[in-house]
Amino acid sequence: MSVDKLDMQSANLVNQNIEKLAELFPNCVTESGTGKAIDFDLLRQELSHAVVEGNKERYRLEWPGKKEAIVIANSPTTKTLRPIREDSVDFDNTENIYIEGDNLEVLKLLQESYLGKIKMIYIDPPYNTGKDFVYKDNFAKDTQEELFESGQKDKYNQRLVVNPETAGRYHSNWLSMMYPRLKLARNLLKEDGVIFISIDDNEVHNSRKICDEIFGEGNFVAELVWERAYSPKNDAKFISNSHDYILMYAKSVDSFKIGRIERTDAANARYRNFDNDPRGVWKPSDMSVKTYNADNDYPITTPSGRVVEPPAGRCWRLSKNAFFERLRDNRIWFGTDGNSVPSIKRFLTDLKFDGMAPTSILFYKDVGHSQEGAKEVVSLFEGRGHFDGPKPQRLVSRLITLANTDKDSIILDFFSGSATTAHSVMKMNAEKNDGKCKYIMVQLPESTDEKSEAYNAGYKNICEIGKERIRLAAKKIKEETGAEIDYGFRVYRLDDSNMQEVYYKPQEYTQANLDLFADNVKSDRTADDLLAQVMLDWGLPLSLKIERLEIVGKEVFRVAEDSLYACFDKGLDETFAKEIAKDKPLRVVFRDNGFKDDTAKVNVKQLLKQLSPETEMKVI
Predict the structure, then answer these.
(1) Residue 443's closest CA among 204, 116, 126, 151?
(2) CA 530 to CA 300: how far, in whole Å?
(3) Residues 356 and 263 sit within 8 Å (Cβ to Cβ)
(4) Helix axes 420-432, 370-380, angle to 10 degrees
(5) Structure letter (DSSP) for residue 294
(6) Which three-class secondary structure state does DSSP give residue 406?
(7) Using an 8 Å Cβ cutoff, are 97 and 490 in contact?
């Protein structure tokens, strides 16, 4: 028996420092002749807003544009999310979120509100087959010229470009797209959170490498193989490819606990009760092992009188004393005739865990195949398949099980496509009847082909398909189950900041120009718009309950009871401040020019400090 030994030496402070840095920057951990080391060039890049040059050789994944990808991930954004109430379902009460826009910018905006709060992330990004579009975040040409040339610019300012195999940076373009998004996504995961990434042979090798760098090689959980096709393609050039991969990484593998699969009738059928043991059903288990131990190599006499020994080169699993203890407890089986080689009785009731350990192969009979995913969409849209290659709902449901989600976990999909993930979350909640898991879907409003069935049916972009699928799936689930769950979702759309440019760079304007901006807020922005940006800036989840109140004739938004009071009306004065103070909110926000005059602005602040000292006041 091995025993842990005392180090008998003082703590290795260098190793401790490396471990602390590794927690903050796992991508900066590399190898040296003595073990783990810090890649200081990469660390310098993480701490810089500009590209840092460095050419020291080391073991790591490199590609043209990697440093730019790091800069992009770390650079702030002034964009915002604007609520779209007309597209939403039960906006004021739902806790589900659907966001239209470039997922890179959206992930940046979610950093404060959802830092360390996401239990599971599932993404199905472009596979880089040579025909896919990729999100290109840094252009060598003029941005407008590049977008118009690609044919992908529209009113949503999409940034999709074709990435053919003939491109000089075929793999590099894809890596540069994925790296900053995964880096930002990691920040959002809880300590026991997990990410799943669907991918195929084209980029699975690079995906493993960038995930090893971003999440840490030690946090790799599995490379799952999904059997996506149920029959071979006879016209395949070489091999009929029947599978895709799903990479699985934990935020912290030490904190993550895998979800187990519900036991099947077939699995339970392996357990029987050959001797009517009152402890219930059991199955025989081989008593010999390969790892030889002379103490466990001894003869055993069966009830029939036959003497048996372990097979050549093997020994018994049990020591002699342990064997006789099991024998007295009727836990050794010699067959119905008492003449067989002994085996150990493993009782179903003795299993250490509930459910079965998941396997690395996801068979289509258990989780569905690609055609099943397509049929699900066709069924919802009354015979029309408006989306290419949707994942089957059963596959995503299996991943949710593996993620070991809690009753009220948040699940994020930032390449949401046809919104299979939202469908799966609602179905899981309905099956549990009281499930309260919440989803956040993010999708670029990529235009549908004008010749496509979807376009002719009125769906001008993928987001329109995704939102409608959620509505249709919610209706179907409610009709089939009657479950009282959250079927709604709030729609937000990525847009430029609600604030004038002068708000961010007042130093670039003269006093004469500043007078032109009497209002910091753009003229086309609503109070709903302002509230969303305030919530993001203050790190409040977008799913919090929002109520509208009237206080002294002014419209006030109350967010999550007393978490935030926001009023963007004008003419605020001391009477208003006294009424607000009665509720003692944790935070209040007003427009900078929303006060009756400068004196009222000072008095409101002082009154709140006196009457509700815990309240934090800010203006925009």
Answers:
(1) 126
(2) 80
(3) yes
(4) 80
(5) G
(6) coil
(7) yes
Q: Global pTM?
A: 0.82
Contact present, 159 and 106 (Cβ < 8 Å): no
* 339-342-343 Cα angle (round to 5): 135
DSSP single-letter state for residue 567: E
What's the CA angle centered on 262, arms 257 and 266, to 5 degrees? Answer: 135
Q: Count the residues in the chain.
A: 620
List b or e across 180-200, with b for residues whose CB sees 16 or more CB atoms inside 10 angstroms: bbbbbbbbbbbebbbbbbbbb
Question: Contact, 612 vs 584, CB < 8 A?
Answer: yes
Express as a percent the part of the chain with pLDDT over 70: 87
Q: What is the DSSP annotation of 38-49?
A: E-HHHHHHHT-S
pLDDT class of 139 with cuts at 50, 70, 90? very low
Would you say 570 and 593 are in contact if contact means Cβ atoms under 8 Å apart?
A: yes
Q: Which residue has the tokens 């002014």?
A: 554
Cα first-last separation, the chain: 66
Q: State the residue for tokens 């179905």.
A: 427
Q: Which has the closest alpha carbon to 118: 441, 467, 397?
A: 441
For 192, the 3-state DSSP assignment is: strand
What is the DSSP secondary structure assignment for residue 263, as one 8-state letter?
P
Given a cut of 70, whether residue 568 has pLDDT beyond it is: yes
Residue 512 burial by Cβ neighbours in a 10 Å radius (0-12, 13-18, 19+): exposed
Q: Does 259 score more than 70 pLDDT?
A: yes
Look-up: residue for tokens 């967010």?
Answer: 559
Q: How far apart are CA 381 and CA 465, in angstroms?
A: 10
Provide the 8-state DSSP code for 334: -
The CB density around residue 605, as the number of other CB atoms within 10 Å, is 16
Calculate Rg over the CA atoms of the chain: 30
Please, are residues 272 and 366 in contact by the beta-carbon 8 Å criterion? Answer: no
Report the pLDDT value the prediction gives residue 1, as an integer from 0 to 100. Answer: 35
Residue 512: pLDDT over 60? no
Neighbours of 466 (CB within 10 A): 27
In this structure, the number of other CB atoms found within 10 A of the CB of residue 490 comes to: 26
Distance between CA atoms of residues 138 and 157, nearest Å: 14
243-250 and 189-199 beta bridge pairing: antiparallel
Q: 73: which residues sit within 8 A by CB, 6+ positions away?
A: 179, 180, 181, 183, 184
Give the C-alpha separation, 144 to 138, whole Å.
12
- Pairing label, strands 97-100, 546-551: unpaired
pLDDT of 347 above 50: yes
DSSP output for 449-513: PTTSHHHHTT--BHHHHHHHHHHHHHHHHHHHH-------BEEEEEES-SB-GGGT-GGGS-HHH
Measure the CA–CA gap between 144 and 423, rounded to whole angstroms.
36
Distant-in-sequence, close-in-space partners of 110: CB < 8 Å, separation ≥ 6: 188, 440, 536
